[in-house]
Input
Amino acid sequence: MTIIGIDFAKLTLMDALDLAILIEDEARERYEEFAHQMDRTHTPEAAKFFRYMVENETKHGQEITKRRAEHFGSAPATVSPDLLFDVEAPDYDATRAFMSARQAMQAALSSEHKAHRFFEAAAAAVQDDDVRTLFQDLRDEELTHQAMVEAEIAKLGPDDPGTLEDYPDDLAPQ
Amino acid sequence: MSDVGPARKGRDMGSGIIVPSCRDLVFGMAGSGGDGIVSAGDSLLQAAAAEGYHGVMTKSFGSQIRGGESSCRVRISTTPILNPGGNLDVAVALNWEDFLKFGAELPVSGTTVVIYEAATGIAPDQIPLVGVTPRQVIACPMTQMAKDSAGTERAKNTVVLGLIAGWFGIGAVAVMKGIRKKLAKKGEELVEANQRAFDAGRAFAMENPLTVSMNIVASDTKGNVKLITDGNDMCAAAAIFAGCRFFGGYPITPSTEIMQFFTDHVWKYGGSVLQAEDEIAGIGAAVGASFAGVKSMTATSGPGLSLKTEMMGLASIAELPLVIIDVQRGGPSTGLPTKTEQSDLFAACFSAHGDVVRPVLAPTSVADTFRITVEAFNIAEQYQTPVIVLSDQEISQRKETLDPIDTSQFTIIDRLEPTGSDLVDYKRFKQTDSHISPISHPGMQGGTYLASGIEHVESGAPTNSGTVHKRMNTKRVKKLDPLKDRKDLFEVLGNADAPLAMVAWGSVAGVCREALQMAKAEGINVKLLVPYLLYPVAEGAYHDFFDSVQKGLIIEQTHLAQYFKLLRMHLDLPAGVRSVARDGANPFLPREIVAMLHRLLSELQRSHEDNLQPQE
Amino acid sequence: MTNGTTEYQAKDYKSDLKPIWCPGCGDFAVVQGIYRALAAIGRPPHEIAFVSGIGCSSRIPGYTTAYGFNSVHGRSLPIAQGIKMANPDLLVLAAGGDGDGFSIGGGHLPHMVRRNMDIAYIVMDNQIYGLTKGQLSPTSAKGRTTATSRYGSLEQPVNPLLYMLAYGAGFVAQAAPTDLAGMASIIEQAIRYPGFAFVNIQSPCVTYGEEGQQIKALKAMGVTLDSLGHNSGDRLAAMDLASHYGEKLHLGIFYKNPEPPPTYGDLVKERQELLSKDALPPERILDLFIKK
Output
């Protein structure tokens, strides 16, 4: 969605790398939350996929962290996670109880699209060459991530017919 | 005048000197709202206190806000007063229509002196008191005397005070001193007018002496410091003394004065008070303040207690200290807002759905309202529970003189707070040997927790587990067990091994204390149990008391015999113990209780004789 | 907004308790917004008291690291007031649903407003009673079919925004998870406002809500008050816009008093300071009753 409080024109490489790490963190945490939601509502296929996404986001984050350490060692970050609002993390609106694996994957896919658009726009807004290159790389990586998810979707058999409404559970008043 | 001991007649020594011989006088006065009857009663009470007497005043009104019938009783005595008294010694009727509306509160008997307004045009032998011939009936033109002396009818209550000073020797100087003080701001002329009215009344009395003189004996405690207050003010003052610094409530008769005391004074102690938008918001704010770590209270009467039920349950499950004063009045529903009753007992003990045990205490007088209110806060804080104090309209509205109370004898108990290691991975509802967990409050680092009405595990997180629920219910109930061993919350008067017994709580205990004195003087070996702790029921205290008892009375002002039934739920009463239950607004009189004790004694003696009969 | 400038981050306000909300519930975003707002303000969690009533959204205090009080239906506001009066230094928040706030709790609202204690009240408005299985709520549209209105609701809905504006609230805003940053900012501003602040959040129910009420639809509907050129210092203009509640989704601050009056707490403090010199020591309080 958006990042607030950052003047992209003046963004430094270190801050850009730190933002990229936070973007992966935000997404990873979201997928973790989603996995827990799916556990609680007995939606195992979607849970399994969200956990797969947790692994992916963790890996992506680790890669960028390595790069950051190479360039900037352990200099403290100056950007806060609180500046990010669902940049790559899927919207909370994306999950539903009893969602199919396909629907989970589609949610992840649209997040990757979202992230792609973000890095594209960010690349256009920055002035520092190194930062621009970084964002373009990250943008292109999103295409790889998208491909991975699309591959997962392709592996799926057809969905159970009908919508969620056709499989009512016993809604429990509290 | 109580019926204790030999008749009290003054003796005219022949030289015109009256030797005072009364030790106790009960005055009853009635008129319409504008007559200043209650003001006169108050003046009388204040004057009596100034002269070193013990005094009690109760008031009773009709239902109009203004101008309706009003009455008061003032009992004045040289010895501490246990109860506002039975039959009147002196009845003052400014008109008969209004006087007769107070039949229960102003009972006239053969020893009463009746003084009434001559302008009613009724002859002394024609007064409309059915079935009773008073000792003496005097028609006095009080209104005319007021007009003549003070230039206004309004001064007739001062005339009455003058009559009382003349006939009974009370307030000869003190009444006018008090009136002077009260009216000081309104100008000397008004004070002088009142003086003239007073003098006129006194002169009338001197010129028309009573057939049997009833001057009161001088008090030997004149000059001692005395307090004058009523149950509501006493309760509020006690609360502030106990450390209460937040009151949330709503106006309701007869408890409103408690809130008013807080709105007058609590700011001075850095505390605050909220007259909320309704009863529920009132107790809600008090629950919030307690959660925030401050000693808090609310006060109400029956209808408000009903509304507050849900919040009380919340406080119980959240284990929050809270004091709820219920000044009982006639029920059910709107009931009788200005009359006393004891019928909120079931509601106090049992209302709120779920398995809840909530301590219920009850004072019996204005004086012990102090101690019981302080105790309520101590129990609430120590056991982290809501506590209900059942006062009643009689105690709350009754103004009486008291000896000073030594506040240094009271210990104040504060809630157990977590320290040090408690605050590492703090568990608000941690299981302990006493079942009481240290309680944090917002602002305390390391003590954050979720308070809720929902069942919870030790940390406070919600649960619906049956195992945890049983454990938590047990914790909440068992933590109160030590209260059942509180012998100091029970009072036994009379011989510990007496075979006859009375049990009474609240204002009825006062009537029974007087009945006990009378009964003992008449040779009846009877004892009285006064419980200050009504719930949980302390079986041990009752078993000890009833051990020697063969016949007894459980006396209460309820229609359903609620207290009797409460006891029977928890213990086996001796077969000879029975219920004496009467609806509110129908006060018990010491004399009639003594009569019941005489009957019990006869029954007891007969059954002994039966037992001694040789077998046939 | 000053995110990232205090020593606290959103995660410092997030507890370990996993929400019971249905996946997709709008409240997930709302609580995230609250975490962000609190982080921006930077009060330590133990100085925050968060009170709620009963309902799905009322579970929210348990999902924060503040002192929470999940109380009884419709009564969060009186309890919040008691907390604030007992300890004015605490940051006090109240939250609940549209039923908790505008049905059973409705009687407390005008009094909250006129007392003007420094408390922020967040209502998660989803036009339904979710926790109890889908009954009509006070903000359900007329004609709406629910578990208790099989033939359609016969009642005109409450307009939370208009009511609060008409009561005279000093801060009235509406937000939605359609704009997370905006919502977090509005919540932050409500908390910062020195007095009673009300935020109505359109937080869709995925289980009982209608298609037209879900985030996708809200995203299409949402119009910011800023984009309309609204002046938030103009109460009447705010009320005019608020009257479209139900047909339109206006997001932003409807009204914010440009000259906030002293809060209830300010006035109490003044009074306490004034009167404290008249206090008899508590152990001598019975001297008030001495017969002179």
